[in-house]
Design a protein that fits this description.
This protein has helices spanning 70-76, 363-371, 397-401, and strands at residues 2-3, 9-12, 33-38, 51-56, 67-68, 88-90, 106-111, 121-128, 135-139, 143-150, 153-157, 160-164, 168-172, 177-182, 186-193, 218-219, 228-237, 240-248, 253-258, 263-266, 287-292, 299-306, 309-311, 328-335, 350-353, 377-379, 383-389, 394-395. The chain is mainly β. A hairpin with a 2-residue loop joins strand 17 (228-237) and strand 18.
């Protein structure tokens, strides 16, 4: 794996497959075909320009005609369409049938924006067992951010292979062809980012170090599949799934160079920033990646985690405070217990608190925190995360009626006593 984030990389699986001058030559080495994959407009400013040159066995245009997959689209990438200001929470997906592969095991929960708007995020759950090695996927709409919760997954892409386990994340940029397989039962979360590509947040007064460091982001080394046979390419295009026949594996890139690459990151390497005096810092200190908007400081998507950490604040209510927020928050739990919810919020499940919908610790968590002995304490064996976005999330029909929604979720806040006496 190559190290770094936002850098220009190069890799070859066969010595001499990369042109020595790093340009597109009249004839690529070793009989390969040169092809550019762009992640931005050609005329984007240099710092924002994303592209990679791929040197492959066959041009990627070699596939059959695409045909719509209407039934699979409605089951997997169903459009979020219900606006609802209520706080919501869901159980995990049940174990899928044995023949469920990555694509067929996906279910949309909520989201905003979309491919036609070029902004927003859709949040999906995923559970699968079958390792279908004849089916490949390409998302023309958005970047995929994978958050495994159960089982390690292997993401084989045109630029190489990444193995991603729970407590790691991976990003596959839009337009890149890939295939996902796993070991045993696999489950997790997916954030589909339609807006600006993810990048590291600015650090401001924190300085040069802290939060996620660019050196810990890894991108794969070149690896190719030389397979012929009967394969299927599933493309997501404008919110719909389409299929085309292939007679060879599309992962036949022998060498590449550029900065438009898939990457992974180990959440355990996040350098948590927190108070060592008093009061509760805002959750923005836990931002791993951000997708920016035209308004400085307001994100299209923030990916935020709540990792193991020390709590040392004096004379302070330590769990997340009650709040109403300009951002809409979908929260998931990778492992352990979240310190503001002592039950009901379980690994593989999720919750949604829309913008300006009040939320905070449940009654039991609040009571325990107000009476706790405020000695230094380490929160351990936990990892929760949030997909935050600036506009309301709509929820899907599956999220409303698919049997996972905890319809009594709001009861966790109904037991607060009135303690004030005039």
């Amino acid at each position: 794996m190559l190290s770094g984030f936002g850098n220009h990389f190069s890799s070859e699986a066969s010595p001499g497959a990369l042109p020595t001058d790093q340009n597109s030559p009249q004839s690529a080495p070793k009989g390969l075909y040169a092809e550019q994959l762009s992640g931005s407009a050609f005329t984007a400013p240099r710092n924002d320009n994303l592209f990679s040159w791929l040197y492959r066995m066959r041009p990627s245009v070699m596939h059959g005609a695409f045909a719509p997959m209407t039934e699979l689209t409605s089951k997997t990438f169903s459009e979020p369409k219900y606006l609802n200001p209520n706080q919501m929470r869901w159980d995990p997906l049940p174990a899928p049938p044995a023949d469920t592969d990555f694509i067929s095991g996906l279910r949309t929960i909520c989201g905003n924006g979309g491919a036609m708007e070029g902004r927003g995020i859709h949040v999906h759950l995923n559970a699968f067992k079958s390792n279908n090695t004849s089916r490949y996927l390409m998302n023309a709409d958005a970047d995929f951010l994978f958050v495994p919760q159960k089982g390690a997954i292997k993401i084989a892409t045109e630029l190489g292979v990444m193995t991603v386990e729970p407590l790691e994340i991976a990003v596959v940029p839009r337009g890149l062809k890939f295939q996902i397989t796993g070991s045993g039962d696999c489950a997790g979360y997916i954030g589909e980012n339609f807006g600006a590509p993810f990048r590291l947040p600015e650090l401001g007064p924190i300085g040069a170090n802290g939060l996620a460091h660019r050196r810990h982001f890894l991108t794969p080394e070149a690896a190719f599949e030389d397979r012929e046979g009967s394969f299927e390419l599933v493309a997501k295009f404008g919110g719909e799934l389409w299929r085309a026949d292939l007679r060879h594996s599309p992962l036949d890139v022998v060498a590449w160079h550029g900065n438009y690459v898939p990457y992974k990151y180990d959440l355990r390497l996040f350098n948590t920033i927190n108070t060592v005096s008093f009061d509760h810092p805002d959750p923005s200190i836990f931002t791993v990646l951000t997708s920016a908007t035209e308004t400085p400081g307001v994100a299209n998507v923030d990916f935020v985690i709540f990792p193991p950490r020390w709590m040392v604040a004096e004379k302070t209510f330590r769990p997340p405070y009650f709040h109403r927020n300009i951002m809409s928050e979908y929260m998931g739990l990778i492992q352990g217990e979240y310190d503001a919810k002592k039950g009901g919020f379980v690994p593989g499940g999720g919750s949604l608190h829309g913008f300006y919908s009040a939320h905070g610790p449940d009654v039991a968590s609040y009571e325990a925190a107000t009476k706790a002995d405020l000695q230094p304490k380490k929160i351990e064996k936990t990892m929760a995360f949030m997909f935050e976005s600036r506009t309301p999330y709509k929820v899907s029909e599956f999220a409303m009626e698919g049997g996972l929604r905890q319809k009594e979720y709001q009861s966790v806040w109904q037991g607060f006593a009135k303690n004030f006496k005039p």
